[in-house]
Amino acid sequence: MKKINVGIIGTGFIGPTHIEAIRRLGFVEVVGLAETSQEQADRKAAELGIPKAYGNYREMLQNPEIQVIHNCTPNHLHFTINKEIILAGKHVVSEKPLAMNSMESDELLALAQKQGVVHGVNFNYRQHASVQNLRAKIANGDFGKVNLVHGSYLQDWLLYETDYNWRLAPEVGGKSRAVADIGSHWCDTVQFVTGKKIVEVFADLATVIPVRKKPKANVATFGAQSTEVTEYEDVPINTEDYASVLVRFEDGSRGVFTVSQVSAGRKNRLSFEINGSKSSAFWNQEEPEKLWMGHRDKPNEMLLADPALFSPEAKHAIHHPGGHNEGWPDALKNMMFNYYTFIREGKDPLKDKANFATFEDGHISMAITDAILESHEQQKWVKVQANQE
Ligand code: SOE
């Protein structure tokens, strides 16, 4: 069978992780990559073993052999490039946030639907095996009615004033930083798990480090600061390091979450607790194999991921016997497997249900981010305007 051919735009932190996940599928081939210059593209293509290198992504969009393009560029390029990918007639996988605001993401969703392309957004945390299992258990009523959802997404890679990355600059990363970058994952994951949409928010945002020392050389996401960096310039920071947000779900149930990129010791800790009318559950991305389940009238339980103990609806997401741990790269691989299987099976994005996050989810996420920013500015509850039915 002929493989599905793919091109990747952008090879910073996330692009190579897409490539690795795709390569594990077997029926998809990464045939090209595009970077900001021919020299950079050649270097990355050699490093990653990819046959075609493009110094201009528009040339790659014209390659008729490529069916799918991944947009792994910095945030400010997502809207324009996603649009061009769709107009070139290619299926698209975009990194989050889908665009810079919900007007743009609305336009992208409409365009993708009009052109009939398969559209995906890399909300990878919903693809963890234990998250899929928890969703199935909640849907089966094991926890009763979900009343409360609370948690946080904490990182420490921007803790010091000398930590710098393109995500801090609003013109590149967007008006919101911590909320759009990691709050978006938290909201997507809990909406997926509970099956309920967030419809209203009340937010408090803060920039803990208002002036940073920007190294004169480029620093990658999660890039440790080289001890050789001696030259810095002072830059004022206008994007949030921290946010706490009260949320209301569509059925009136309540939630709250905190995001921070300045929490020492927390590397990539997306966690949430669900309190239902029968039982509770807690999951933490840094220990993804564990699902805690809390009860009032019997001892609490810790379920270690094991296909033999999973709900039938979630077995597809776990690939090894218990104790053979699966984590972040495996969740990403699940996302890619589901997306490419949809294409391989010739499914229709307008009619068939996708088991991965689509541009619709990306748009909902942008609408939540917009509402959070507005709520913080106006210090009041704001409705999420995603034109949801
Ligand atoms: C940086 O905060 C980042 O790489 C996010 O952009 C990703 O979406 C998240 O998965 C890990 O952290």
Tell me about this structure.
The chain has 389 residues and is an alpha/beta fold. It has helices spanning 15-23, 38-48, 57-61, 78-87, 102-115, 129-139, 170-173, 178-194, 328-344, 359-378, and strands spanning 4-9, 28-34, 52-54, 68-71, 91-94, 119-121, 146-154, 198-206, 211-215, 232-236, 242-249, 254-260, 269-276, 280-284, 290-294, 301-304, 382-383. The strands form 3 sheets. The chain has a 9-stranded mixed β-sheet. Strands 3-2-1-4-5-6 form a 6-stranded parallel β-sheet, sandwiched between helices. α8 (178-194) crosses α10 (359-378). The radius of gyration is 21 Å and the shape is globular. The chain binds alpha-L-sorbopyranose. Alpha-L-sorbopyranose (SOE) is lined by residues 13, 155, 181-182, 185, 221, 268.
Low-confidence stretches: none
* Class computed from helices, strands and strand pairing: alpha/beta
Quick check: average pLDDT? 96
Which term fits the overall shape? globular
The percentage helix is: 25-40%
Share of β-strand residues: 15-25%
- Distance N to C terminus: 40 Å
